[in-house]
Design goal:
The chain is α+β, with helices and mostly antiparallel strands and 188 residues long. It is built from two helices and seven strands, in the order H-E-H-E-E-E-E-E-E. Strands 1, 2, 3, 4, 5, 6 and 7 form a seven-stranded mixed sheet that branches. The chain starts with a helix and ends with a strand. It binds calcium ion (2 copies). One calcium ion binds next to strand 6.
Length: 188
C-alpha cells in the first residue's frame, strides 16, 4: 500500500510539474507572439512615416521641376551671339536690339561662361547713378563676377561693363568708359 501510495504521489507531482511547464511554455509563446506583433506594428509605422517623407520630398521636387519647365517654356530657348562690329556700349546694345535681342544679363553663375575669346560688352552699367549697377532690364545687380580691384570707375568715367575672357571665369568683369569700342555679347 505504501509503495502504491508513493507511486501515486510521484505521478501527481510529475503531472503538476508538467502542467506548470506546459503553462509556462504556452505563456512564453503568447508573450513572444505579442512582442513580435508590436515590433511589426512599430516597423510598419516607421516605414509608413519614411514613405510619407519621401513622397513629400518627391512632390516638392516635382513641383520645382514643373515650375522650371514652365519658366523655360515661357522664355523659349535662349540664344547667345556676338556682334560683328566694334562699337560703343550703346551702339552694341542697339546692334543686339536690332536683331530681337539685348546685351546679355548674367544673373547666375551658370550664365557666367566665357563663350567668346575676345573682350565683349555685357548688359550692365551704372550710367544712371554712379556705383548702382543695373542690367538692361532695369534690375539691380545682385552678384558680380568682378576682376580684382574692379569696378574702379577710373578717372570717374567708367560706367559700362565688359567681360574679359582671358581672366578666371568667375572674376573677369571690368568697368570701362562707355565710348570705348568693343563687340557686344547678345542674348536672345
Ligand atoms: Ca561708374
Ligand atoms: Ca575699370
Amino acid at each position: 500500500v505504501c509503495f502504491c501510495f508513493y507511486i501515486k504521489s510521484i505521478n501527481s507531482i510529475c503531472f503538476s510539474w508538467l502542467h506548470i511547464l506546459l503553462y509556462s511554455i504556452s505563456r512564453s509563446f503568447v508573450i513572444i507572439e505579442q512582442t513580435f506583433k508590436e515590433h511589426c506594428q512599430l516597423l510598419r509605422k516607421v516605414k509608413f512615416e519614411m514613405l510619407t517623407i519621401i513622397i513629400i520630398n518627391l512632390t516638392d521636387e516635382k513641383d520645382q521641376l514643373q515650375r522650371d519647365f514652365d519658366s523655360l517654356n515661357k522664355k523659349g530657348p535662349v540664344c547667345f551671339f556676338k556682334s560683328t562690329e566694334l562699337k560703343s556700349w550703346s551702339d552694341s546694345r542697339q546692334y543686339c536690339r536690332d536683331r530681337g535681342a539685348d546685351l546679355v544679363i548674367i544673373n547666375t553663375e551658370e550664365k557666367q561662361v566665357s563663350l567668346f575669346s575676345e573682350r565683349v560688352w555685357i548688359g550692365l552699367s551704372d550710367t544712371e547713378n554712379e556705383g548702382i549697377m543695373k542690367w538692361v532690364d532695369n534690375s539691380r545687380l545682385k552678384q558680380g563676377f568682378w576682376h580684382n580691384g574692379e569696378p574702379n570707375n577710373q578717372d570717374g568715367n567708367e560706367d559700362c561693363i565688359e567681360l574679359m575672357p582671358s581672366n578666371p571665369v568667375l572674376n573677369n568683369w571690368n568697368d570701362l568708359p562707355c565710348s570705348q569700342e568693343k563687340k557686344g555679347f547678345c542674348e536672345k
